[in-house]
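INFO batch 0412 | record 1 of 1 | parsing
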Amino acid sequence: MLLPLLLSAAITAPLQAPLPPEPAWQGKTLALINTQDPTPVEAAGFAVTPDYAATVAYLKTLAAGHPALKLSRFGKSGQGRDLWAVTLGQPGNGKPTLLLQAGIHAGEIDGKDAGLMFLRDWAAGQHRALLAKVNLVFVPIFNADGHERAGPFNRPNQRGPQNMGWRSNARNLNLNRDYTKLDTPEMRAMVALINEVQPSLYVDVHVTDGEDWQYDSLIAINTTYAPKTTAWLTGYYRPRLYAYLKSQGHMPGDFLFLEDGKHPQKGAILWQAEPRYSNGYGPARNLPTVLVENHSLKPYQRRVLATYALIEESLRLLADDGKALQQAIAADDQARPAELPLAFGRGDKAERKDIPGVGYQYYQSPVSGAEEVRWTGEPLTWKQVPVWPMDKPVLFAKRPKAYVIPAQWPGVIQRLAEQGIQMERLDMPLKLRARQYHIDQFQFAKAPFEGHFRVSTQGQWQIVDEKLPAGSVRISTDQPLGNLAMLLLEPQAPDSFLQWGFFNAIFSRTEYMEPYVIAPMAEAMLKEPKLKAAFEKALADPAFKADPEARLRWFYERSPYFDQTYLRYPVLREE
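INFO prediction complete | emitting tokens
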């Protein structure tokens, strides 16, 4: 009876996470606050954020008074809530389009309230000249179910609002791990929206946890896969965005992780996201993507105002140079690299930088029994910290002409189609000579991750002759999403469907050969000299020599009775 009582006490006790001191701040963006015509968060003094119903009601009121503001449903959450998008302009009209996404992690909801403030000001007559040059598509609450699982104890490392939503959706799946596998109805709807509006820029607003520093808005831009759009983002967008945010009293910076959160001087890394994340997925499909990570220890009001400024300047930069960005996207869409990096690691050399951090002290915790850190809140520059780029390619694949997927894997085929990847469906059976990945070793994860038991493999590609049934699909890599197809279908890619477990059935054997059958058959097989020599070589392993079952299995695997699909990745490569 003691454990339930302790848990109940932990839930009901009036505890509050002891956050570091709140820094003093005065910025020009404070002038954006409108107390005469407040949005719900302004009316609440930025203490609470409006719930789903209040947010939708506010948007409907704006839309009712302004026909140019279109409010539409683009999908449903797992629990049946409508997913809403606000559109200003007409995507597809030749003008650049900004897709602004808030609340993929619903406790990190800064983008929603900043977007509502921006739309309120547009309705009042501001930003009209700007929105005449660009289109805006705004998703205020992406993770609607997590948004409604709100409470004061959801994010202990974050300073406001009081009613923070939950990180994952109703099935406990993290939407920002689902861009490639498309397990959730929310992400399937978002990818469909991306395919529909074809944005020129995709901005995904988050709030980051971790160590304390002076930054209030951190920006992550992957430098993988889309060189032309990356050049626009890093050479044009980022420096101008940072200059504007600084002019408004905010502190932007590149998104960093400290290698050791207790010891800043040990170094930091510039993260390169895998395609399962928004900022890794975007470059994989030549979609310029910006991950915004506001700093959790800054007050909610300051974070929302920083996001407002970021939205406004992003639109302005698109208006000023969006044509160049669209040309860069078109150039990346036409690129067909002969070799594609599948994974990235730490670069060879760190760059030493001064980082605007805060002061810290160490103390011996009687609870952990170890040295812990206490942030003081006082500005302190961390001098010459080594910063490691994580952009070194460590694994490659040569670009095939095409992939062919047999008809019996409709789940994979459906997900590829939902991504917008072009494919040709076979109307009749086809005999094909191609390469197939034969798995020599495999290792399943010990615990599920995002609802999947992931698997890592080692193997080799071999030429095979296969007869494919009607309904199979051929996916050419000579298409704008050819890189994305490779990252989903190359078995060694970290976000491949193989590694996510969509082909786990190939790791199961369903037919067996009894010892009384295989033993005499093996004796006959030994009359073949090459096989006999290979067996004698295998016997050099003492463990194998002492294992009767392994010895018989060795012959079974080399007999014509052995399952020829076992440990064979069914996706074929046309070279």
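INFO post-check: Residues 515-557 form one domain.
INFO record closed
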